[in-house]
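Figure S7 source data.
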Amino acid sequence: MFSLEQLVRPNIWNLAPYSSARDEYSGKEAHVFLDANENPYNAPYNRYPDPLQRDLKKELKKVKGMPEENIFLGNGSDEAIDLAYRVFCNPGVDNVVAIAPSYGMYKVCADINDVEYRPVLLDEKYQFSADKLLAACDAHTKIIWLCSPNNPTGNSLDRDEMLKVVNEFEGIVIIDEAYIDFAQQLSMRQELPTHPNLIILQTMSKAWGSAAIRLGMAFASRDIIAIYNKVKYPYNVNQLTQQQALTALKDPFEVDKWVRILLEERARLIQAFTELPIVEEVFPTDANFFLARMTAAQAIYDYLVSEGIIVRNRTRVQLCQNCLRITIGSHSENNELIGALRKY
Ligand SMILES: *Cc1c(COP(=O)(O)O)cnc(C)c1O
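Tokens for the predicted pyridoxal-5'-phosphate complex:
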């Protein structure tokens, strides 16, 4: 039987959270607010923002089909990643298991929180085996990290293998879906009601074109979300971010249009790459970037920098020797990249 209490750190389980002025009074009828030591001047920036971002979650409910009580919003996905360690992992005692290579923040946050990080290498097709991940776990493993589509490899992970991990692991499984809007693969969100140990991460930073506002989402059981809300900084998502996210969410068709264009550009760029003599292999991708194995990644990277074009050099990452990670840009940016590589 799944017991959240057994997974959460005792100090967090027993935590009495900070109660802000905006928590203690949340009605709409009052018109004189003298409870939060705010300045009455300089509206609309003088008031503290809604600590639970209720208007924003109402709009997200329409777009994502998730009830408000199953949504956590943070200062980028990075906040939701760090919170996972602070909520579940006792420093110096617990550990986490993760696919490798994957997103660098999982390990950085583990190191910051003094939590042992156990990477399990993907196979040569950048797929993983549930059994290998589970074999790396012990009684102190609190979290398994999955990322699909994965960064930096670009591919979606096998859905049945992911489900196997969620079904068989007794701790928390976090699936990072930062690139899901570009993917053929469906989100794992629909698995949440039947899997109380699952947390799904998404973000406004990629398909939604809003990296600057820093808004990350975690979807999970209402019990997990309640604990996240208790541990987060009271006003973790500022008012400007909440307003701008609301504006963006009111126009999801704009995002669909961007995604369609970027997927066309991705196909065009990959075709051009495969025709270049300096490209050895382009790996399958389900994201707005792809990984390409080059004849000499470092030299080509340096050349592109000298041309004013920056890509991501992943050659020092395990399984990514001589690989560059290429983000899909605008039509003209992609043309500049191809033009430069043809001259190399
Ligand atoms: C870009 C990215 C994110 C986004 O992080 P934010 O803090 O929301 O900008 C999350 N996970 C992965 C794997 C990413 O590549």
